Structures
1.
Amino acid sequence: MSEIDSDESPSRIKRRGMRTGYTTGACATAAAKAATWALIHQRQTCEVTIHLPVGQDATLTLHSCQLEPDGCLCSVIKDAGDDPDVTHGAEIRAEVRWADEPGIHLRGGEGVGIVTLPGLGLEVGGAAINLVPRQMILGAVGEVAAGIPEGRGLTVEISVPGGAELAKKTLNPRLGIVGGISILGTTGIVKPYSTASWRASVEQAVDVAAANGQSHLVLATGSRSEKFAMKHVPLPEIAFVEMGIFTGKALRRCVQKGIRKASLAGMVGKFAKLAQGHFQTHVAGNQVDPAFLAELARGCGATQELVGEIRKANTARHVQELIQRAGLDCFFQVLCKQVAERSWEYVNGKLEVEAILFDFDGTVLGRAERHG
């Protein structure tokens, strides 16, 4: 997971004129195409134009071009624009050499992860170069190499110095990708504060868990909730998915992959939204509704005074404090039942759903299930 979410709306970002950037896949493609051209023509180059999956061309400046008679190493410094991408500033390299076997042979080098688990749509034991970037690289190299002598081929090695360290800041270790980053990107463009990469990583985590025999997953709204859930749900680490704001996407992916049961783990703020059927819980898209929580409390026997206080509450945490001070603990169980019910309805009853609500210290405040 390389891109993170922002509390700003896309329209506000657009108004601010924030810069787009290029994916690791686009950078690797540019480096590979440039190295191929330089090798074939035995001339160095300083920039290269590639075609992006979004249907537009992009010209990228090279960071380096080291030419030898039988090989060329080119690199591009990844510019993620104004997106807080962990790979921003990384050097994406491509070394192209002549091969005795015909065809284009793509492999990963230093800093590119190795796939160790099924479920990613990539060969186990192979390089973590995703399908679209793989197609981009092979297509760009093939375009330049169309006129090479018959019987000759090319070896293309993608590498990222320092990629192993960068990978520690991503979901790669959880997905079974070891030793480096993934070469990613479905459009070639990184949009500022885009959630596309984040959402894709959540879906990949579900895919990997399913492909490795897990039928019960824990979908946590954050890292703390996930950590708390690990103490209460006896499942292997691979069965825990930090879904963030993408509850709906994660639930539907579970159904698609044949998962039998999903346990939602979270705190009162996210659960307050899920209980109302809001399945993308980004703060900019869905606010906590104190009036809804007040009526929920009324149904649990809250006094009129408490109901009024909840309606005026500043945050969901404030609501929790008011409920706990009043000793109305049944509220949390009802909230969990609502979350489980709405989630079960969201997937048309095709998945058993459990909701586990945690306090900020890891105490379980409520726990409820919904199944057929």
Note: Residues 106 and 156 are 5 Å apart (CA to CA).
2.
Amino acid sequence: MVIDADPGSILDVIADLESYPQWSSSITAVRILAEDDLGWVDQAELTLEHPMFKDTYALDYTWDVEEDGVGVVSWALLRGEVITLMDGSYTLTATADGRTEVTYDLEFDVSVPMPVAIKRKVEETIIDSALRELKTRVEG
């Protein structure tokens, strides 16, 4: 998805995990567990409410980004009860016209028994809403 903002502005929104419940329809709570010396979140606990399930899970973050915001923010699941896999990333790439191409990758699974097609649909809705809601938040 292309967002009408520079990578740094988008990175600011992504990095402000505590504000996710204000703009993400599926994230209802965030608690920062650890930060590095520069204030980047190392670990956070999030509560996800999806029509198919609810879970509170912890992620470990890696911030491989430049000062201008270009780069990759990635995360890996530390723990979850229903969620058994939640590893993903945002890749921010500046475009020639001052906008940013945002790529969201996600590997996702849950312990709740459901057909593979339904799991894929859940994954697609998480990705779609994450990108759409990020775009809305950034572009205002």
Note: The CA atoms of residues 72 and 109 lie 22 Å apart.
3.
Amino acid sequence: MAELATIARPYARAAFRHALEAGSLPRWSLVLGTAAIVVADPAVEQAIMAPAQGRSGAAELVANLVKAAGQPVDQDVANFLALLGENHRLPVLGQVAVQFEELRAAAENTLDVEVVTAMALTEAQQGQLKAALSTRFKREVRLHESVDSTLIGGAIIHAGDLVIDGSLKGRLARLATQMTRD
């Protein structure tokens, strides 16, 4: 995992710098995210790694699949994919996309927060949670909510590397662990 992150870092930084200078961060986010999904498919992964495909053929395949998924592939994106293909780095596109998003969030002073709740939050609850997290992290928070009824009650918040487990299920698990230690 660390090796993939290390390999992807210079590509993510280069893509970010280019997108920032061109004022096209949102477009690059979409294209890189789509490309990451494309290369994660086992059939595509196998195809781009096949020697018969060739370096440029693998990049063209990914570009065509990204286009087929509805994302525009301009000359800059095609050149970026060709560079990755030439250096046998297309398989790290997922990590490139992750690092690109981290760089974008830092530049835009935003934080994506995943909130998993037992029941859907009301708009008022979302607003209160967003305001509290914005104050805590001193960033604009983009809230992404999902529902998991197995939590019984409460919520789990994922903000970067921080995980706050305030779910009833989590509390019961901690209580059970504590009781078995004593």
Note: DSSP finds eight helices and four strands in the chain.
